[in-house]
Write a structure and sequence with these properties.
Blueprint lengths: L2 H4 L2 E3 L8 H10 L4 E8 H6 L15 E6 L3 H14 L3 E6 L4 H5 L10 H14 L4 E6 L7 H14 L4 E5 L21 H10 L4 E5 L5 H9 L4 E4 L1 H5 L1 H5 L2 H6 L8 H17 L4 H5 L12 H11 L7 H17 L1
Helix pairs in contact: 2-13, 4-6, 6-7, 13-16, 15-16
This protein binds flavin mononucleotide.
Length: about 325
């Protein structure tokens, strides 16, 4: 299957959330969904020597590395490092509004300098064989999205970018926290559909506020190429990913319920513990597995009370799973 086909559904890059344990979990549930890393900055990789940030498990394919930065030569070098490490795609972050990131000229503020983003994308594409993609907003601050977004997309196309994920809201760079910037600026999904009509040769993924697989399918049916889901996939991973392979690609999903996913995670957890890691580094991404189902609360409570303790091992997860089983049986 091509990467573009996998990109019909993707899990968005999320700092502190889509780390390698989270991606391992997501990959168990869906063999096809394209997964993204957290953003890794090019200065950290190239100047900081933080190669360990690139670590991932081979089972995670197809997996894209998201980079943050604004220096073409440095981004090209970081892209090369990512491609050497085996990532299937290198993505440039033009959507993240945080202060820390703004100070280094990364993320959404780059919507104001599309020529520079094009230079970055060109330099990255020249450095690697794998696709270079972009994740952007529809605009920032007082920009008019209906004007700046098509200009941005055509510059990306001219720079050789063929796939773009669009978070369908502006970022307001002053006065809103990063979290508020994911909720307060209004969503404009229709604008993304208009862009698809205008740029039929680009693969466009729509992102922002998509809550269910049903809604994602509705968007695909309306003609968008891909749907990227962030928070809903993190908070209710089974609901989004558990049946995605069947619903989106017509293939048999790997598991028929979330309990099986927990059991399949145990070897990964054991390996992590054996290398000196802590249980909650993995289980924190598993909290939402039973979201909306009997036993969800007991599952979360047991994991949050016990998984951070010194020496906590897989028995905590097995006990939590037993509790879910008992609640389900009682329903
Ligand atoms: C905790 C968190 C961290 C995020 N980190 C990144 C990031 O590193 N790079 C990025 O492009 N977007 C980041 N985002 C934005 C998401 O990728 C996504 O665009 C946004 O959450 C909207 O999609 P959703 O409504 O489906 O969550 C982050 C979002 C969250 C909730």
């Amino acid at each position: 299957m091509t990467l573009n086909q996998s990109a019909r559904l993707s899990v968005a890059p999320m700092m502190d959330w889509t780390d390698r344990h989270c991606r391992y979990l997501h990959r168990l549930m869906s063999r096809r969904t394209l997964l993204y890393t957290e953003m890794v900055t090019s200065p950290a990789l190239v100047r900081g020597g933080a190669r360990h940030l690139l670590r991932f498990d081979r089972s995670e394919h197809p997996v894209a590395l998201q980079l943050g930065g604004s220096d073409p030569a440095e981004l090209a070098e970081a892209a090369r490092m990512g491609a050497d490490e085996g990532y299937d795609e290198i993505n440039l972050n033009v959507g993240c509004p945080s202060d820390r990131v703004q100070s280094g000229t990364f993320g959404a503020v780059l919507m104001k300098t599309p020529g520079l983003v094009a230079d970055c994308a060109r330099a990255m594409a020249a450095a690697v064989e794998v696709p270079v993609t972009v994740k952007c907003r529809i605009g920032v601050d007082d920009q008019d999205p209906a004007t700046v977004l098509p200009d941005f997309l055509s510059r990306m196309r001219d720079a050789g970018v063929r796939r773009i994920a669009i978070h369908a809201r502006k970022a307001w760079l002053q006065g809103l926290s990063p979290k508020e910037n994911r909720d307060i600026p209004p969503l404009d999904h229709d604008l993304v559909f208009r862009m698809k009509e205008r740029f039929p040769d680009l693969h466009l993924s729509i992102n922002g506020g998509i809550e269910s697989l049903e809604q994602a399918k509705g968007f695909l049916d309306r003609g968008i190429d891909g749907v990227m889901i962030g928070r809903a996939a993190y908070h209710a991973p089974w609901d989004i990913l558990g049946t995605a392979d069947g619903e989106i690609w017509g293939e048999a999903p790997p598991f028929s319920d979330a309990s099986q996913v927990v059991v399949a995670m145990l070897p990964h957890i054991e390996e992590h513990l054996a290398s000196g890691g802590r249980l909650n580094a993995v289980t924190r991404h598993m909290m939402g597995l039973f979201a909306g189902r009997p036993g969800a609360r007991a599952w979360r409570r047991l994991l949050s009370e016990e998984a951070h303790r010194d020496g906590a091992g897989t028995e905590v997860v097995e006990r939590a799973l037993d509790t879910v089983g008992a609640r389900m049986a009682a329903e």
